[in-house]
Amino acid sequence: MSKIEWTDKTWNVITGCTQTSPACQNCYAKAMTNRLQGMAKKGIKGAEKYISGWDSVIFHTDMLGHIFNFKKYPSGCRVFVNSMSDTFHSEISDSHLKMLFNLMGARNDVTFQVLTKRHMRMYSFLIEFKELVTPNIWLGVTAENQAMVDERVDWLVYLKQEIKGFTDKDIKIFVSCEPLLENLNLSKYIDTLDWVIVGGEKAHKKGRIMEYEWVKDIYAQCQKTQTPFFFKQWGDCEKKIKLSMQGIDNDLLHKIENTKEFPMNQTFIRES
Ligand code: SF4
């Protein structure tokens, strides 16, 4: 099981990345890669692929076949692709991306969750190679502030519409508002989104604050349109925020914290 609540497994084919937006400030993958690089240098088994460290963006072709390990990735599971990097990083070639998407299409009994902060690369790649888009691949962007909503979510929604227009395929799109850094207005897009994830920042007690009002507002927007909403966690600010929540509606808080919805899963389950 993955520690990330909204997925079951991770499939890390890429190591290394570059920070690109405010959400990246306390990147978990960077800290973890540095730790794993240290382990790799000591010859600890399982950490080998991290030997080149954070600054080298490497596509590990030897990791591709792992997705056919049916014991590790059983039918019906959700797989977060490249949780330790960004699939659409500019240093990843189109031919490598094609390999990755071909394999995701081949494992159509699994749901793949591809989350990026490189929305333009995702858009241009998938518009050029539309045939690689399959319904078991959910495409998402991070939107930690309104500027990222206006830019990344806009392109994501446009991508969904274009794919539908060109291929008649319905794809699932999602937004991860983590770390949530300010109040977000998703109203322009909420009808088209299939899933919204909200979470605070965990960064060894350096996590930035996520206000209750911001979370409540996104929850209300999702409720209004019946868009699946997933509350992940408060992050490092939990204690501070809870202390400041005098006189709030505790039933509503409890409801929000326990809302862990998913888009309707259309993944085909392989017969054993
Ligand atoms: S894109 Fe993701 S993996 Fe890359 S630096 Fe930002 S948060 Fe970290």
In summary, what is this structure?
By secondary structure, the protein is an alpha/beta fold.
Keywords:
two-stranded antiparallel ribbon, binds iron/sulfur cluster, alpha/beta, 272 residues, single chain, seven-stranded parallel β-sheet, pyruvate-formate lyase- activating enzyme
Give an overview in words.
Strand 6, helix 4 and strand 7 form a beta-alpha-beta unit. The protein has a domain of 183 residues: Alpha-Beta Horseshoe (pyruvate-formate lyase- activating enzyme). The mean pLDDT is 95. Helix 3 packs parallel to helix 4. The strands form two sheets. A seven-stranded parallel β-sheet has the order 1-4-5-6-7-8-9. Strands 2-3 form a two-stranded antiparallel ribbon. The chain is 32% helix and 13% strand. The site of iron/sulfur cluster (SF4) has 11 residues, from helix 1. Iron/sulfur cluster (SF4) binds next to helix 1.
Helix/strand-derived class?
alpha/beta
Biggest β-sheet strands, sense, barrel: 7 strands, parallel
Strand order of the largest sheet: 1-4-5-6-7-8-9
User: What is the CATH T-level topology of the domain at 75-257?
Assistant: pyruvate-formate lyase- activating enzyme
Instruction: Report the portion of residues in β strands.
Output: 5-15%
Sequence of secondary-structure elements = EEHEEHEHEHEEHEHH
Distinct helical segment count: 7
The helix fraction, in percent, is 25-40%
- Supply Rg: 19 Å
What is the CATH first-level class name of the domain at 75-257? Answer: Alpha Beta
Q: Count the strands?
A: 9
CATH architecture of the domain at 75-257: Alpha-Beta Horseshoe
Shape designation: globular
Uncertain parts: none
Query: What ligands can be seen in this structure?
Result: iron/sulfur cluster
Q: Distance between the terminal alpha carbons, to the nearest Å?
A: 21 Å
Overall mean confidence score, pLDDT: 95
